[in-house]
Amino acid sequence: MKDFETLSPARQLYVINRAKKKGISVEEFLGKKQPAPEPERKYPFSKIEDADLRLTLSTQPSQEDCDLHNAYMKEYSLEDYIDVVELEPTKVIYGFWKATIGSHTVGFLSEHRYTLETTGKDERGIEHLYVRPEYRGWGVAERIYRKAIEMGFRAITLSWHRIETERQQQYWHSIGYRYLSPFPGQSALPGGLVNLHIDPTASPLCYAYPGEFAIARKEVTEIHRKIVRRSGGGYTRDEAFDHIDVIEDTTMKYLRNTGRFHKWMREKWPKIAKKQKIAKKQEENA
Hints:
- This protein is α+β, with helices and mostly antiparallel strands.
- The protein has two domains: about 1-30, no CATH class; about 45-280, Aminopeptidase, CATH 3.40.630.
- It is built from eleven helices and eight strands.
- It has an eight-stranded mixed beta sheet with strand order 1-2-3-4-5-7-6-8, sandwiched between helices.
- α8 (about 215-230) crosses α9.
- The longest helix is centred in the C-terminal third of the chain and has 19 residues, at about 215-230.
- The protein is globular.
């Protein structure tokens, strides 16, 4: 018991409790080979590298680009209900941005385009983002999000389960995402997607985030129930487009019956129309 006696009182108590929990004596516990402590993680970037975060667009993927994309698919396809599509160097890709910090390739983001109704112009959004496991835990993903916002990416597409807890909401709000717009007809499905925006959209289904999150979830779920009844049964997220006419008609009826559409026309549309007029004038003078 000499080893035990050399321990501090707090450590002795820890050993006693651990031995009791394992159903062995203190001597046996101390005699067992304890696992070596995990080596302390070292920050992977030098000061010079740390100041050099870049997003570089790739149109013809390298093998490294393919490995990044395929690693993302392998890790997140089941969780996010994504159809696995492997990338090969022979394929031409759209909107693939490689993320590097100094000489380190840390991950990538993929881009999608959407039309912002307030101006009628195409805007960039983030569809997927991936950080290599060895670079996680250092705030790399958040830095990529902020860099993308600086470059004009004004929205991000996410699954509901990534934006619903209080901690998640604080995280996305701190980065700058202030508005939520769901996709009627599929947002309430497993893996259903929503967009988070930096700026408000022109849609009546645009909610303050996270303040109106509960309202958004409730209304989207109610719209979905009505769509399922009218379409004659359920469908998957990928099949939602097959029911687009029912989805649009049901959504509009819901917005009118609940008064949301009329409130939007009264309070929001005049501001949106003004922005559209200014944007059109600027385009004509350019």
